[in-house]
Batch of 2 targets.
Target 1
Amino acid sequence: MTRTRRRRLMLVGGLFVGLAAATALALTAFSENILYFYQPSEIVGGQAPTHTRFRIGGLVETGSVERNNDDLLVRFTLADCEASVPVQFRGTLPDLFREGQGIVAYGQLNESGQFVADEVLAKHDENYMSPDVAEAMKDASGTSCMPSNMQAQR
Amino acid sequence: MHESWQQFWAMGGYAGYVWSSYAIAAVVIVGNIVAPVIAHRQIARRIKNEEFDD
Amino acid sequence: MVETHYASTQFTIYLQRNGVGVLAKSAFMLWLHRFGSLPYFYRVSRPIALALAVPGVLLAAYGVYGGLVNAPVDYQQGDAFRILYIHVPSAWLSLFGYTSMAIAGAVALVWRLKLAEIFVVAAAPVGASFTFLALVTGSIWGKPMWGTWWVWDARLTSELILLFLYLGVIALHNAIESPRSAARACALLSVVGVINVPIIHFSVEWWNTLHQGPTVTRFGRPAMEMAMLWPLLCAALGFTLMFGWLTLWNMRVQLLRRERRSRWVKKVFSDA
């Protein structure tokens, strides 16, 4: 390797390392803003904003879904391992909405601590399998109160 | 696995989503195959016609 | 006879003095030098492209067919999950393509290798196409499953930035008149922009996102049934070979455009 080439290599490498460091710093600084949603325990713990709209992500608690057929109002509670938040929503639910499913809802807390959502999105996990295999897995693993796919690996 | 071809095309009610995805993909991929062949033919013709010989 | 004997004796002495490692290295340098020669590349790139195209198309078709027809339905998503067999290979190629451009870009900047410069420019439209496909098929998949076409979560946003980086490379190449400066600017943007690649990959682990975590590259228990995974791997490999094929053809075009006034190009086309 000649001297010019070594110098160029150092230049390109230095530029790359510098930029990577700057990006890492920026991402760490803005980390909170990149969070797509808050978990129920964070909301109960008062970490979520009270007067602006934000997103909540949790599992639909089994047996908590109440549908009103007249006006399409749906009530359910979203939970993680420590807390649960009651949610109400009027509109069309995604096909994956069901009890035990990971859900991300967008809306605002009202005075009585209910989360009034105007958008409900389903978050599925990274597992793909046929219904037979899923049936067989169910007995082995059991369901978690907050599966890893619903929280960042911080 | 599908029970019949009719069921295959129906995609369990998601036909519109599944087939439109694959249709768009086919168009983009065919475009990527055809574009360089046409461009190559064009530039080869211009070189043969000595258009760059000034 | 005497001469060959002399040559082989010299060769043995060379080996004894320098060892096989040095011989291998110089053979590699010779090959690199030869492959770096533009007429040689133009000549061999055509059969190489064909050798990538045939298995690439066959594997991709086999994988997509297997995914659409033979794979069992997903226990949660039903048949909608079959969009995966085009979405995941596209997303994989969007990352693979940019990473390969960054490596070629670094080689172009340090060693001024013309073929590396041409690779950066030639791979950009192919990579941009697959990034576009990853975004569009993901959007079409998201509507029925998640309930929305688009969200501004970390995964989707960083993948959109990747599309802009690809388009930036293409735009730079078109905007700068001098081919050498254009190639250098494109190489630089590829090297710098590759920082986005690990961000895209790890975004689903670092932050809460609507997009789920990695399925295939996950450690431990496979997150996908074998009957579903096998066609996916075939499709991904097939599309990767196709990426090489399409990029090689783009390289041939770029090469002719840059070398159109050179003697060897004229010779190639006057003979034919």
Target 2
Amino acid sequence: MLAYYLRLGLHSLRRNPILTALMVMAVGFGVASSMTTYAVFRAVSGNPLPDKSTQLFAPQIDVWGPDSRARGRDIPDALTYKDATALMHEHKAARQTAIYPVGFTLVPRDAAREPFAVSGYAAYADFFPMFEVPFLYGSGWNAAQDEARATVVVISSKLNQQLFGGANSVGQTVHLDDHDYQVIGVAADWNPRPRFYDVNNSSGFTDPPDFFLPFTRAIDTQTETAGNDNCFGSGGRKPGFDGWLQSECAWVSYWVELPDAAAVRAYRSYLLGYADEQRQAGRFHWPSYVTLRNLTEWMDYERVVPPETRISLVLSLGFLLVCLVNTVGLMLAKFMRRAGEIGVRRALGASRREIWLQYLAEAAIVGVSGGLAGVMLTGLGVLGVGLVFEPDIARLAHINLGLVGLTLLCSLVATLGAAFYPTWRASRVQPAWQLKSH
Amino acid sequence: MHIQPILAALRKHKAGTLLIALQIALTLAIVCNALFIIHQRLAHIAEPTGVDESNVFVIENMWGEQYNKQQAAANVEQDLATLRNLPAVQDATQSDSYPLSTVGGSDNFITLKVDQVEPTTDATVYSGDEHFLHTLGLKLIAGRDFRADEVKDAGQRDVVVPPVTIISKAMADKLYPNGDALGKSFYSMSSTPVTIVGIVETMQRSRLGAWAIPYAEQSMVWPIRDASPLGVFYIVRAKPGQLAAAMQEAPKALYAANRMRIINPKDGLMSFAQVRRRAYDSDRGMAILMGIICVVLLAITGAGIVGLTSFWVGQRRRQIGVRRALGATHRDILHYFLTENLLISVGGIGVGIVLTFGLNLWLVTRFELGIMPLTYVLSGVVLLIVLGQGAVFAPALRASRVPPVEATRPA
């Protein structure tokens, strides 16, 4: 029976090709714009570490006091060097690491090759197990090497390819900014997006880091941060690198792993206790204030999803809504015009349900065709997304089987939803009245 | 034209009428807000930088060796001499940042008193030498340029607060609204006052995020040579019309003078046009997207009105025939459909205006968009009425050509 209805539907749609094309294109455009912006939204709002996002936390400490917030700013989204090293030293979480971005010049062994710039992060040993960094060769360094300020480095598989042709390079040396580092591990392709541990410095969607080295070692060589350095107020600061380390400038990212609710509670009170201690020591002249956000809360707090992406999604959904209202109107007109035909079919014994199903089948054909048009337009949209969004973000959006399926499903569901009222009206046609009027 | 019979007829097509009205309402809300977003973004892009944009380019030079402050400063001076000697080059300077760079440099709180809590403004700090104004083409409107002996070297974390500065007119007006800023001083995150010795007409900030909108064009130059161990920006002004030649010879000359440097092949060398494109990437993209949404949405709404009206005309051929037979002219029938559409549009627009402000208010609270001026709604209303009348015209014309004899035919 369904096949028969579909045939009837096709026949009816072919009778008004322009109107049919209009409905199909409306559904297609509406779905395609929503799907394209959704593809971008999905790419930037994804959870970078789903299995651990509730166990990873970023603490904040109010080191600048209420004056700094007079103009609506929040407390710094990084720690000062003093606080980061104090928290590292007291080691109260299951795992913890201080992190900051660094940039070096890499001078290849081969004198014929030009030196080039590399970027990476200074971190502690816990970084690797905490963030589940996969390794191709070797491993991360250990806590003892943190203590010893070891000259070791973990390099990315890309850098390993560039320098050692992809071979196992563990034990080889890499020359970074006048210092030799021993390769201790080669990380497999690892670039969580957004890069949650660095969203306070970057958009979170930049190229993957080339290397990681011990935080303690980076400080030893007086390596500057390549990220943000937020300072507040006109307070005197001693000059030079040590003056900077002792200052109230916030530039160290800090992450802790807390396996359960009890650990979170304990760490929160520990942080507050730490801030209280600092206040009693005369460093803070205001009530202690700390925060502890988990990974997903941190993504929200840092507004990782650019406002452009959200506005586009909202307006595209509004656009889809208009397209659907349009389709409802056209279908209604089309179906009601055939009231006479419906009257005849009803008089010949078709039930309301059968009429309803027949017109729903016709709507489904529109939905599927609209979906196919939508898939093609979404393809075009994703290709053209570079025109509209920033390059870092645009390249994340891509079309895959899931998106194609979602586009088809979305257009079918939307069209059937839109068809609900017109088909219902069609099924309520009074046969007697229709027959009489002719 | 009597409205009464039209309303009576519309009552028989309640659902269709409501759907068109709803579509017009939603279209108005979305188009007005999209146009407003487009306007805001374009206005942002059109802000002047004060820079001689067609002749300036920028080199991001990173050092390949670890230099101390003296070595870095000497290298910078040597490189600048190399650049200034090139035949296609007018002048060259160094800085830690430049207008629209979006990277490097710093943004400082500015206060008028040393113990002031709430900052008076927030300004971009550019480090620059006595060639900075001339190289960028910034127009000095009061006071003087830096002297060579005022320029001090500063390493990465050195807290150097110079005694003198050159600021933008926008910043001068913000600090001293009476126009007497020259010779006065202010504090910039330090307890040492800085004296204003020069004012330039326009000098855009380096960063332009939403937070910086209240501080547009607030910027200043400090007489500092950037002797950072990381690297430095060289800003070069080519002789008029020789930008391409200068951009080609500059990196070659620098590498020939000293190989231990990195100029990233990807974005280490950028003309100011490229700098501008990068800075306004997301603004331009947003304007394009909103433009596409507007055009397609209006097209679909227009097509929807054509489709639905065509159906109504087809459905009412007999009634139209009867009216024609009873003496109605072509013009009467045409007016009937145009007025019908106008009534529906007005109804839709009434709801649409409420939706427009609702959506705008929501965008304001969620995305710091700004309140929409009434002119947008008015132009949106005019646009939709014209669209509706235009869309309904063809079917209405067809209706007016229905011959009176239709009255005698069965539907």
